[in-house]
Amino acid sequence: MAEMTPGTALRQLKQAHATLKKARQAMRMARENPAFGPKVVDAGWDALMQAHSLMAAIPRTAVDEEVLTQQLSVQRYATSLLVRLRRLLRKGEVGPDDLDDLDADDDE
Known about the structure:
Blueprint: H1 6-32, H2 37-56, H3 65-91, H4 96-103
Helix pairs in contact: 1-2, 1-3, 2-3, 3-4
């Protein structure tokens, strides 16, 4: 198997970020219809598992400044999603203010 390059690592991190964004969009569905809550938690958890697996699979040889910056962005986004999933489990709903914080990470 070929050695992973920084470009490949960057593409995988961007893929992980996109998966996390899809989970966030699912949280919007739960806000509109609370019946989607359990499915949103499952989708969010799957997105978190996938993102962490991708991040953990990046070898040191594929790390450069751009990869590290993207990894930080994905990790922050994942943490933010995890906080919202926890709130969803505890309160049973996602409030509008919970999603506003996530929107700030879209530019990264």
